[in-house]
Amino acid sequence: MLNPDLIRQEIEALSWSFGAPTMAIHSFESLPSTNDQLWELLSAGEQIPVMAIAQQQTAGRGQWGRQWQSSPGGLYLSLGLTITPDQLSPLLTFASAWGIATTLQQAEIPVQLKWPNDLILQGRKLGGIKLETRSSCPHIVIGVGINWQNQPPFPGISLETFFQRQGKRYISHLEQLAALTTSGILTGYDFYAHQGCDRLLQAYEGLLIHLNQEVKINGSLGTILGVNQQGELRIRLKSPGASSEIRCPLGTISLGYDLPNLNPSQLP
Fold first, then answer.
1. Do both 195 and 63 map to the same domain?
2. Where is the signal peptide (predicted)?
3. Whether 117 and 190 share a structural domain
């Protein structure tokens, strides 16, 4: 199993004082879902912040309830934090994604983002984020899966593959990646709490791989403008002599990996 003390030491080495000395870290060989385990820990009275981490998931979930393949060799962790009533969950997803990407960039791994919650490396999917809230509950569970040494399905990429291509290893062990990921979540959470919605959206949009790309939706040419506070994707459609902006809610369209290919499953 992963070493909780080493993870905690790595977090402290990153100069993150927020909860690091007292953070409870629960490590498992295998779990159905780290998110489910975290909710169980919170229901049992575990104090915030708290982490559940596993070397394998047997029933991991991605966005929209899709199965997340969680084979041994990847990073699978969930972090429990407290939220305020005015913090919107789509923006918390954006904050987590931006924070993790920014932290990995500082470790010389050029991670970008694909709306709404994918971590992208060299045009391929490095990982994803699954955020969960429950009604009348002041807590939020942020689940993260990152390909480390596992063999992800297409169009995925692992950090091991990236290191081999670079001829250099920027992260030495899985506990270090867990610490960087945790630090990234906390960095994004702190940025959102202190800088507000507009600054967060601007920072998030700055890492989007599809920003300002031209795409076609049902035969109409458009340009991706960014996102709004509801988490919707903003697209300006163009037609002779006119233009209009549409907003696509989460789950209504799927952005491809090969630009400028946008595959609409449903439009509002």
1. yes
2. none
3. yes
Q: Does 165 share its domain with 257?
A: no
Q: What's the pLDDT tens digit per position in 79-125? A: 999 988 778 778 999 999 999 999 999 999 999 999 999 999 999 99
Alpha-carbon dihedral sign for residues 186, 190, 191, 193 = positive
What separation in angstroms does the CA of 227 have from each of 210, 231, 233, 250, 267?
11, 6, 5, 10, 16
Q: Are residues 257 and 155 in the same domain?
A: no
Residues of the chain with pLDDT under 70: 15-21, 60-70, 241-242, 258-268
Same domain for 100 and 169, yes or no, is yes
CATH number of the domain at 76, please: 3.30.930.10
